Amino acid sequence: MLVHLQGAWNPWLGRLTLSQIPYHSPIVLGAFAFALLAAAPIVGLMTYYQKWGYLIREWITTLDHKKIGVMYIIIGLVMLLRGFIDGIMIRTQQLLADGPRSAAHLQAVHGYLPPFHFDQIYSSHGTIMIIFAVTVVLTGFQNIIVPLQIGARDMAFPYLNAVSLWLTAAGAALVMISLFIGDFSHAGWVGIVPLTELPYSPGVGVDYWDWALQLSSLGTTLGALNLITTIIMMRAPGMRWFRMPFFTWATLSTQTIGLTAFPVLGVALALLSCDRYLGTHFYTAGLGGNLMLYTDLFWIWGHPEVYFIILPAWGIMSEVIPTFSEKALFGYTVMVAATLSIAGLSWAVWLHHFFTMGAGPGVNLVFSVSTMLVGIPTGVKVFNWSLTLYRGRLRFETPMLWAIGALFLLLVGGLTGMMLAIPAINYTVHNSVFVVAHFHTMFLVSVFGIFAGLMYWFPKVFGFRLDERSGRRFFTFFSLGTVFVFAAMYTLGLMGMTRRLDYLYNPHWQALLIIQEFGIFLYCVSVFYFCKMIYVSIRDRAKEAHGQDVWRTSRTLEWMTLTPVPFYNFAVIPVVHGRDAWAMRRDSGLTATSPGDYEDINLPNNTIVPAMLGALAFGFGFGMVWRIWWLAGLSLLGIIGLVILRSFADDRGFTLTAATVRRMERNHEDTGIVTDHISPPVAELALFQ
Amino acid sequence: MRADIIAAVKQGMIAIVQLRHRADFMRRRCGWLRLLPLALLASLSGCSGHQLRLLHPDGPIAATSLRLSVIDVLIMLCIILPTGIFVAISLWRFRAARKARYDPGFTHSVRLEVLMWGVPFAAVAALAYFSWRGVFLVNPYAPTALGQRKSLLAMPDRPGTGNPLVIDVVATDWQWLFIYPDQHIATLNTLSLPAGRNIEFRLTATDVVNDFYIPQLIGMIDVMPGMRTKDMMRADRPGVWQGFSADISGAGFSWMQFPTRVMTHAGFAAWVAKTQVAPRHLDYAGFRSIARPTIDLRGVTRNFSAVQPHLFSRIVHAAVKGATDTTPMFLTEHMRRDLARRAPYLSGYPHS
């Protein structure tokens, strides 16, 4: 061992002991019971209906970009719920721990959470919401929609796509398991150094955070590579650059950011790991280290990550608003230019996250101005969306409601963002809840975009619409919750309340904290309506089933496929003759025609290898966190061996003959059912036959 | 053009100042407004008094920040309000049921596109001008706002008198030590200042990063181990304000407040004289025991006299050479049954 560790260590279990299971903490026990309650019916039903084989054959081993996307979105939504529960706990603690006379429960000095627990909750809230909820759901959308929008049968690298998914899942699993075995980081989602160094975080919490981020960032980098290649190489004939749907442009910009920024995070965290495992001094205060180095590296990733999250949401808005305005997107070319320039500027603004770190006026000014420059293309986007509405024929179905909500939130976020960009103002609100309210406003633009996308594309993927009635209530309560929580939070920021306080010393904040809590209650109601919406929609799926183009005014190529989309996407790859290809076909009355000739389709076999890589990555992460060297070593060897082994596999995929495709498509025309239960075989099963 | 803009901004600010006066009047006359269920609006209108601390600066630095905020918001509202109204009207006017003019061909307009790039560009140019002014006015190393008389951006008050008072600020895990090197005194978890005199803070930390912040007086500045930052300010009038750490630094972070007492010149001189005969002395060894991780639950304050010279530099150099006050496992995220062991590290914990 190269570093001094507090506490016991042994070669077999590393730092892991039975006392690391927090069975005496009533809150963690409650969480455990909740997780069991949520999992039990799912496991029970799966077993009762004997669906485990189906799950493995059709989902765990799949290389189909749509199924992978759906799994991304499910992981993301589960993590969104977990992050939301963390958020409730944070604000409830602050409400209960306001003022020196506030009561104490459960070993806390004020409120019900001691700082040793509270700090973990806000750290996991941030980490989960940013890395494992919003990022993951948006990646899911890009996975599903981009190949469909550009008229491709799959991603450029379907196998790599599955590897990305399972690496992300391994990271998410590490965060989740930290709840029940050991602790999570207490140093915020940004992992401020030197607080995350071993002398100040001697436990395993920071290691959990570190490896979870490492794994998911690797997955995201590979995903970015895949999506960029797909967009460049896999476009249908005639799909020139400026005929691409706008969401595809947004994805291209997003993933360019992802490909360039995520490796920086990997490096920043690798150096931190060196400090924590090897005893180096990259970020320590003394002995030659420099903590500013970490802050720079982290935000060189961290700020592009912000646009990694917001650009796809703006892409979704740019698909939804034209569809429900029955008009093409206003100023398409300008929108593309704006998106690309935002992506470019995202690399040049990172220092505005630490104007207070003592940089001179010259440096601060440069980054202040570059930050404000982002406001120009963003403003252009807002103007273009509003002009798309102008002289349209607006229908306010649920996706449109979410998109409009996002538009208004963006106005508020822009106003406060411009304040923060000016150092002289930033000094007074940096690290205050004003900043927290600002970036939540911006993340909520993303979240509103996500729900717009969910309502908009759900029918395409699953073949039935989401229930409109409960969907509207979901929107209403969610929006009201947003107004109450964040109006109060902005005001608290102006009252001088800062972030991450376990105990609030000022009893005058009580009224606004109550308003905040009321807003959170409204969010809870909205979660109820979300669940109701899913339940009602599945129950009435026969009634809500529909054909290719559920909204009747959609414009892009994904709506040309059958519904639900067959696993080969397009029976015949379409030829594109202009922008908004599907709208063009509809306007020329070409929607009902079916191709005369079908062709053989070659598709990849399913394979269990990516899921195994994910499991091994989880084993590696878990071994490193607890310093169980044999587990980490064996897992790493397993990963390397498996990758080499797979490279020898002569897997040429399987071929769907033209006759089968014809039968399936004709069958759909007659009965409305797409497949006759043909799906790609699992490659490894061939070994046993 | 520039004069016009400045005049417009001035008008806006005068209006806002008047609104604030009115709010003060309301606060005096209508305490019952507190009872309204719309506590949110009530607090925004100033009915909960000076609790909106960022809108009630008591020193030139904080005042300059507020003025820039007002200017920024006014400029941004010039764009955001019309846009919001335009969107709202469009949503109403062009809803399908109303059968208003429908023009699917309206998807491009060079004139509008020039406008939509030009307007934000102009706004950013204006804001960049104010950012440039502001960055020097409140530059932590040499804020020009302290030297100015009445102007648009700087607070109209008297310039500071005499040499700046130097105070060395040390953030430990998790307490504040303020050293007055020229007076050879120090205070723990409380800060005393004279009104009307420029104050120069030199800041460092022993272990992890904190932010030094007194909302009505001075913006945030990072306090970092092994490094020194600087910040300058002046308080306009005597009074008591709450200072605190604004950057997460571990378990004791939530209790890192320090009351800031601003006194008259004479009052401050008397306080210094009194503190110079305080029974407690402070040398480097004594400091290391203060720097041991302590959660200041009770708000313990101490005064020290006969402070060892160059204590601040010694602390910085020790950090550079690798001095650390290791946090015990049970004072971090680790939540196991160590309450009894924690007690000695908690000042005023019920069980201790």
TrEMBL record, chain A:
GO terms for biological process: aerobic respiration; electron transport coupled proton transport; respiratory electron transport chain. It comes from the Bacteria. It is a multi-pass membrane protein. It is found in: Cell membrane. Keywords: Cell membrane, Copper, Electron transport, Heme, Iron, Membrane, Metal-binding, Respiratory chain, Transmembrane, Transmembrane helix, Transport. One of its GO terms (molecular function) is heme binding. Pfam families: COX1. Residues 59-577 form the Cytochrome oxidase subunit I profile domain. Signal peptide: none annotated. The chain crosses the membrane at residues 27-49, 70-90, 122-146, 158-181, 211-234, 246-272, 298-317, 329-350, 362-380, 401-425, 437-458, 474-497, 509-531, 628-645. One of its GO terms (cellular component) is plasma membrane. Belongs to the heme-copper respiratory oxidase family. This is Cytochrome o ubiquinol oxidase subunit 1.
UniProtKB/TrEMBL annotation, chain B:
InterPro entries: CcO_II, CcO_II-like_C, Cupredoxin, CuRO_UO_II, Cyt_c_oxidase_su2_TM_dom, Cyt_c_oxidase_su2_TM_sf. One of its GO terms (molecular function) is copper ion binding. GO terms for biological process: ATP synthesis coupled electron transport. The chain crosses the membrane at residues 73-94, 114-132. It holds the Pfam family COX2. Residues 46-142 form the Cytochrome oxidase subunit II transmembrane region profile domain. GO terms for cellular component: plasma membrane. Residues 162-274 form the Cytochrome oxidase subunit II copper A binding domain. Belongs to the cytochrome c oxidase subunit 2 family. This is Cytochrome o ubiquinol oxidase subunit 2.
